[in-house]
Amino acid sequence: MTDTYVGAIDQGTTGTRFMVFDHSGRVVTSAYEKHEQIYPEPGWVEHDPVEIWENTKDVVTTGLDEADLDPGQLEAIGITNQRETTIVWDKETGKPVHNALVWQDRRTTDRVEEIQAEGKVEWIREKTGLECDAYFSATKAEWILDNAEPLKLEAARGEDVRKRAEQGELLMGTPDTWIIYNLTGNHITDVSNASRTMLYNIHEMEWDDELLEEFGVPASMLPEVRPSSDEQTYGSTDADGFLGAEVPVAGALGDQQAAMFGQTCFDKGEAKNTYGTGAFYLMNTGNEAVESDHGLLTTVAFQMSDEPVQYALEGSIFMAGAAIEWLEDVDLINNAAQTAELSRSVDSTDGVYMVPAFTGLGAPHWDGRARGTIVGMTRGTRKEHIVRATLESIAYQTRDLAEAMEADSGVQTDKLRVDGGAVKNNFLCQLQSDIIQTDIARPEVDETTALGSAYAAGLAVGYWDTVDELRDNWRIDREFSPEKSSEEVDKLYDRWDDAVERSLDWAQEE
């Protein structure tokens, strides 16, 4: 088995990565390409699906070429993706009718507030496990059907977009579905991604007719829902296509569930936090869909072929790495690595708090009108204080989630597994350990999102036989333990709540 591998396409918010893993879960090759972030109006975020697909082909071929691998050496490909991001395309031509609406996009906040005013929030939560928020796919799909310009379609097809959807001529999906469709020609998603649309009943494990009616989404648009690791496979790449080989596409997971899978959180109570563009804290709750009383989401974690679904509690932070990118955008830092050096150069933030609510706040606040706020500044405040406050905001938001998670599940996490780009920052990892008063374990392979989708695909085709093999692959790079007292940290955390309060319900005029 030394000369065969499993590939993973990781279609993320800022770019697309292709990675190849060997049997021990080590990276054989990796290629990455960014795509454009499109901001048509304040609070609106779009991607070009065609650019994403072209980049996907580029990174796959580049990754294989650089490692001198033949596509035939891939036993399977797994997909992982930015979740909730919504694409609608023409069934016949495969062309998108509009740019993708990204999970960060807030243009449907008014629609969400209508639903809230109609008293339907609990009804939606009972079916989907989700808060009613512009974050999820349902209102995004509805917006595209109501607002995409017919001119974006071929001139001969002059009918409006919603009418064409009702006639069965359009398809929709999250980026996993878009990639699978372009790789195999099949219109498929997995249970974890379906559970993020706000159109899927996570108890019945099927698309919900009442929700489809509420959001005006025809059932004919929706992909077939399959297990995350599927022995039947989702199809294979075309031997005459860009890859030049028939490779089974056999696993798919939304990026946060994939990271959980890659961190081998297969048992109830095991938890991980991924620090990417946002930060996402998930705890495995086993075969029980635990309802949250503290603003968390109940979501599908994953499903293996012929096995029951496993669920998770999830806390979603919209801005983590994106807050660090903002520091770079406004020239407070030159690069992300500089944040640790600048933060260490001061003993504290000197009372400054930064709430990075640039696109609202996720769990546990769920305020789409919250906005980014810096409080506590004096004439003596320097950029070092603001940079440190930004790193601390990531850690404080994680504590918000950790406390909600413990309250809902009754399980205290004694070790949090972390991954994502930001965990390369030792200062942030130590800060996180101090603020949540919990040990932090950083694995050797921190691209656990790609690894999780590779694991799902590899299990499906027998490249790995059991999850125990995957557990054996998990290796710690470094652990961090609390160095500050709980009394000291609690005092700082109390003021964080005050800062958050000042950010809430700010964007009144949108």
Helix-strand blueprint:
Layout: E1 5-11, E2 15-21, E3 27-34, E4 46-47, H1 49-66, E5 74-81, E6 87-90, E7 100-101, H2 109-117, H3 121-128, H4 137-147, H5 161-166, E8 170-173, H6 175-184, E9 188-190, H7 191-194, E10 200-201, E11 206-207, H8 209-215, E12 224-226, E13 249-254, H9 255-262, E14 271-275, E15 279-286, E16 297-302, E17 310-317, H10 321-329, H11 338-344, E18 353-355, E19 373-375, H12 383-409, E20 415-419, H13 426-436, E21 439-443, H14 448-460, H15 467-473, E22 476-480, H16 486-503
Parallel strand pairs: 1-5, 5-13, 9-12, 14-20, 20-21
Antiparallel strand pairs: 1-2, 2-3, 4-7, 6-8, 10-11, 14-15, 15-17, 16-17, 18-19, 21-22
Helix pairs in contact: 9-14, 11-12, 12-13
Strand segment tally: 22
Tally of alpha and pi helices: 16
Strand content: 15-25%
Question: What integer is the average pLDDT?
Answer: 91
The gyration radius over C-alpha positions equals 22 Å
Structural class, by secondary structure, is alpha/beta
Task: Identify the overall geometry.
Answer: globular
Fraction of residues in helix:
25-40%
Distance between the termini: 57 Å
Q: What spatial order of strands do you see in the largest sheet?
A: 16-17-15-14-20-21-22
Main sheet attributes: strand count, strand direction, barrel closure:
7 strands, mixed
Uncertain regions: pLDDT < 50 for 5+ in a row? 151-158
Binding site for ATP: 13-14, 277, 321, 421
Pathway: Polyol metabolism; glycerol degradation via glycerol kinase pathway; sn-glycerol 3-phosphate from glycerol: step 1/1
Catalytic activity: glycerol + ATP = sn-glycerol 3-phosphate + ADP + H(+)
Binding site for sn-glycerol 3-phosphate: 13, 83-84, 135, 255
